[in-house]
Structures are given as structure tokens and as C-alpha cells.
Amino acid sequence: MPVQRRRSLALVVGLAAFLAVAVAGQAAARFEPAPGTVVVRDDFSRSEVVRFLVPTGASIGRPEIEAAAAAAGVPDRGLEERASGRRDVRELRLDTSLTVRSSFLSRRIDAARLRRLDVFHQNRLVLELHPWATVVGGDVRPLGSDLLFRRYAVTGPADLAYRIPASAMLGPLVLVLLLTLVPYLGVRAYTGRVAASGAGTADKVHRLRTAMLAAALVLPLALTAVWVLSGLVLLPGLLVGGLATTGSGSAAAQVVVTMLLLALLFLVGLVPVLWAAGREYRKLRGITVTPASRRGSARLALAFGLPLLLWLPLVAVPLTGGLPAAVRLGLQAAWVVLVLVTVPLLAVRVMPTRPLEHAVRARLEALVERAGVRIREIRVLDTRSQQVANAVVMGPVPRLRYVLVTDHLLESLDQDELEAVVAHELGHAKQHHVLVKLGALLLLAVAVGVGVALGSPLLRSVNPTVLVLVLPVLLVLALLLVQGGLGLVLERRADEYAAGLVGVDPTVRGLERVAEANLLKRRTGLLWNLLTHHPGVAQRVERLRARQPHQRPTPPAPTATA
Ligand SMILES: [Zn+2]
Q1: DSSP code of 119?
Q2: Are 165 and 47 spatial neighbours (Cβ–Cβ below 8 Å)?
């Protein structure tokens, strides 16, 4: 079996095994309370959710529960009926607060009030707590736990106190440390082996790139799994809950803190691996690191990181509450436009760029003019530390977009080839590929939303832990297929545009020279292409050559002879 197919197969098998373990493990731990049970789940930072599992056919409904909440003196933030996923029970959820006292790592819940909420008088009260929490006061009996919750039957009327021992965070931190250290050592050993192998430089460079790509794909997923499985997922709630009061504002703060902590986690996990592979890569290509090139790399990293941070408020907007849905949607749309407009202006200032030399600039500007694409400026991007030969068009808005060509590209290509590469980028701009990709992302989000809404009775019957583990993997796969597949199509379209603007020959030569200058592997597998959003150069050249005959002007038709 070819190596590429073997790798794809290993990836699919690994993924299937992960899903199977997650589903099987969690199906076993699923909590099935009997009808008539009152379940209190403590979210720590937000509020307590009280679930009334009403037996089907019982006369107890909304009014009885609202009356019980009022009699118990429990503030009622709204009661909603939910599909329980079971035939024998209906579920009514009361969003409330039963907490008497709470501090950063400890809480006290008023069991007497909780008891008064037992509208069924069956004495079946269940308390769901973080797996990290330990009950230190009150009469409770452990009922078992799963990844997200530890459950207790409440047996007495006394106040319930529980706390989260600081040592509970040690295990997760050790796990994170292992997930940073083990891949780092693995990649270091692998890059050492690659360097020592007898393969050609281009082949070695490709293997290093594969290692970096695999790490960039697998490590975030693995770290997310650790984040959920180890209970670190509770940390934002603890941090926000320790500082803020309950309410929708704290929910938004929690989302932002979660995203920031996850970003930090990914950074801590990925940087050592990428550094190890990057060091070997520089050695192979004979790149020496200077203080100036290090500054350049830092500025590039900042230019990539800043726009990502700018998307954060978008995630938190839906949780701010209070505002009508239409206003929230309007705010989000306005934010998207603002980010799209400002990111290129911001990025070009953060990146190490400089003006283009006059003669080259005049020629490229003539090309831009000929293409009818409106841009702000063409600039040179310094990539001394990586030696990247590439060009990019930044920004979807005419007049507010930049074309960047890298220093290495200018050194490696002649004028015609350079024009072809820039023409390819102009093709992306002319056909609004950034917006097309964004639109596809939006469609995917809508599709997921509709899917979740339609499948919600089914989803509710699935253990939440399984969803938390499985959905991100499925989402990443969908993203990979949709964005990767679309990326491949758009690259082809941009190639065709370039061939139409400057001719097939310069376009092919440009592609070949870029591949040479970047030590790219010429023929690549589908998985690699999907991940990088680019077909292999060999495939691109073949496609352009294949369409060449149609490009030639058709010869005049032979005159009919009598
Ligand atoms: Zn492209």
C-alpha cells in the first residue's frame, strides 16, 4: 500500500477508535434518574439548574413548580420545558440560585430550600457537582460520576457545603505538561532521524512540513480532549465565578476566558513542537537566525495572532443577553465587517514589510491595472527567517487590500514568473475568494445550527460528555472537507485566471519556480492537499497544460468546396 494511503487509513482508524471509546465509555456512565427525582446541577459561576423529572401522566406541571419555587423562596429566572429523551418522564428546568454562600473554591447550598422544591415528596433529591468538588458538610450519599459530574443523593435537611481542593488541578496540569513534552520529544527524535536519513533535501523538508502539519492538526484536538476529560473545562467557570456575580454577563465572560485559556493551551502545546521542527528546517535550508530575523518572525506571529483575537467578541455577543435577537445579529454583522476592513490595515503594519523597488513596482502595478483589481499598495514581506517564496492578497475590500510579495519570491523568479504569481493572487481578489470561503463557513455554521435544532431530541438523549468530545472532531472534519475542498477548487480557478491574464507558459514556469524556491514536493496526496488547501504543483501544471489547446485562437474554418 502506498505510504500516503497507509497514513490516511491510520488517521481514519485512530479517529474511529477515539470516537468508539468516547461513546462506549460515556454510554456506560450515563445517569438515569427515576421519574419524580429532582436534580440540582451546580454550574458554580452561573446559577443552579433544577431539573424536575415529572412522570408522564402526573398532574404536576408548570404552575405547581412555580408555586413550589415561590414557597421555598427560590429566585426563579425562568422555567422551560425540555425534551427528556425518555418516554416515562417530562423535564422542566428551573434556572435559579440556591446558594447561600460562595467563595472562590467553596460553596454552601441551602438544603432546606432544596427540600421544599421536592414537589413530589418522594425524597429523591440528587445534587450534581463538578468532578473536582468534594462535599464537606451535609448528609449525602455518593451516586457515581461521569466525566462532567459527580452525583450525590441528598439524604438530610442540613446545609450542603462543598469545596474544590486546589490539588484537584494538579492532575490536569500534569496531563497538559505530558501532552507538551511527549510530542516535543517525539518530533525532536523524528526530525533527527529525517536529518540523518539519506533522502534528498526536498524530501526531508516535506517530511518536516508533514510533521508540523500533523502536530498543528492533532495537538489542538488532543489538548481539547484533555481540557474536557481532565475537568480543566471547569476552570473558566471557577475563575469567573470567583470574581463575578451570576448572570448572563458572566456567561459571556466565561466564553471569553475559555477561548483565551484554550488559545494559551494550544500555544503552550504547539510552540515547542513547531520550534523543534523549525530548527531542523532552518538547518536543512542553511538559514541562520539573527536578531533581526527573530524580530521578523515575532512580528509575523503577532500579525497572525491579532486577527484571531479580534474574532473573540463575536463569540461572546450571543451570550450578552438583554438585547433583542435582531440587535445582536446586527452587532455581529457590523463586527464582521469592521474586522474584515481593519485586519489588512492592521496586519500590514504589524508584519515586517517595506515598499517595493520602483521598476518592479511599476510593472506589477500595470498588471494590477490590466486586471482591473483595486488595491491600496504592493509591498515586500520579509521572510528571512523562513525563506518563503510566495505572494498573497490581503483583504476583501477594494482599495483597502494589499498585495504582498515575499523577498525570497523576488530573488527566485524572473519578471514574467513574478507577474504570473501575482496574477494568480489577483485572481483570488477578482473572484472574491476570501468572501466565498467566509460564506462557506457561514453556511456550514447555519447547517450545524439547523442540524442541532432538528436533531435536538436525539442530542438530548446522548450524554453531554459524548457531545463535547465528538462534536469538535466532527466539526473539524467538516471544516477540513468544506474549506479544504473549496480551497482546492479556488486555487484551480486562480491558476486559470492567471493563465488567462499572462499566458499558460509563464504561469506554469511561475508555479515550477515557486515549488523549487520553497523546496515543495511536486506530487502530493489528497489529505495533504485538503489540509493545505493547495493541490500539488505537478497536478496544477498538468491541469494548466491540459487546458492549453483551448486557449489557442481557433483556426479559420476551411472554406467549403463545391
Ligand atoms: Zn492561491
Answers
A1: T
A2: no
What residue numbers bound the domain in which 68 lies?
38-164
Of 286, 301, 330, the residue at which a domain comes to its end is 286
Tell me, in angstroms, the distance from the centre of ligand 1 to residue 202's CA: 21
Handedness of CA 285, 289, 293, 295 (dihedral sign): positive
* Residues 177 and 154 both lie in one domain: no
Whole-number Å distance between alpha carbons of 166 and 18: 30
Residue with cell 506571529: 301
Total structural domains in the chain?
2
Does residue 24 lie in a domain region? no
Distance between CA atoms of residues 48 and 95, nearest Å: 6
Ligand 1: distance of its center to the CA of 491 in Å? 5
- Give Cβ neighbours of residue 496 (< 8 Å, ≥ 6 apart): 427, 544, 547
The packing angle between helices 504-517 and 537-551, to 10°, is 170
Query: Would 68 be classed as within a structural domain?
Result: yes
Please report, as a single letter, which amino acid is at residue 46.
R
Q: How far is the CA of 275 from the centre of ligand 1 (A)?
A: 26
Residues 6+ apart with CB under 8 A from 206: 519, 520, 521
Report CA 315 to chain centroid distance, whole Å: 12
Round to whole Å and give the CA distance between 410 and 416. Answer: 11
Q: How many CB atoms lie within 10 A of CB 504?
A: 20
> Cα 383 to chain center, whole Å?
26
Percent of the chain at pLDDT above 70? Answer: 85
Say what the pLDDT of residue 174 is: 87
Provide mean pLDDT across the span 256-274.
Answer: 87
Q: Give 416's pLDDT tier (boundaries 50, 70, 90).
A: very high
C-alpha cell at 99: 446558594
Residue 353, pLDDT > 70, answer yes
The rounded Å distance from CA 352 to ligand 1 centre is 21
Residue 241 domain flag = yes
- Using one digit for the tens of pLDDT, what is the confidence trace for 63-78? 888 888 888 888 777 7
Q: How far is the CA of 345 from the centre of ligand 1 (A)?
A: 21
- Helices and strands in the chain: count of H runs, count of E runs: 19, 15
The rounded distance, in Å, linking the Cα atoms of 118 and 111 is 11
The confidence score (pLDDT) of residue 244 equals: 45
Which of 405, 364, 368, 371 is closest to 388 using CA atoms? 405
Q: What angle do CA 514, 499, 482 make, to 5 degrees?
A: 75
What value does the mean pLDDT of the chain take? 82
Confidence label for 217 from pLDDT (cuts 50, 70 and 90): confident
State the Cα–Cα distance between residues 412 and 19, nearest whole angstrom. 46
Task: Name residues with Cβ closer than 5 Å to ligand 1, which is an ion.
Answer: 491, 494
Q: Which residues contact 445 (CB under 8 A, 6 or more apart)?
A: none
Burial 264-285 (b: 16+ CB within 10 A, else e): ebbeebbebbbebbbebbbebe
The answer to the question of residue 19 being in a domain is no
Q: How far apart are CA 294 and CA 300, in angstroms?
A: 10
The answer to whether 241 and 99 are in contact (CB under 8 A) is: no
